[in-house]
Design goal:
By secondary structure, the protein is mainly α. The protein has one domain (about 5-70). The protein contains four helices and no strands. The chain has helices at about 5-20, 30-45, 50-60, 65-70.
Length: about 80
Amino acid sequence: MEAIPRYTALRGAYGIAALLYKGLSPSVPNFPAIKLTRNSELITRYRAGESVPTLAKEYGISEQRAYQIIAGKRK
């Protein structure tokens, strides 16, 4: 029996995986508990007098999203 070159075996495995998982891509998990904590902290800090631009920058979100969180709008 002749040995299969490693490259060919890997390429074959990749081809099978591509057929099995066609159209599927890794999804980004949604972390609702982390978002709820972030949102409540953002609202508390806003009520304590911190500005929306400062909070948005610190939390890595847009100012528009920070205003939506403060207003209680869901996304």
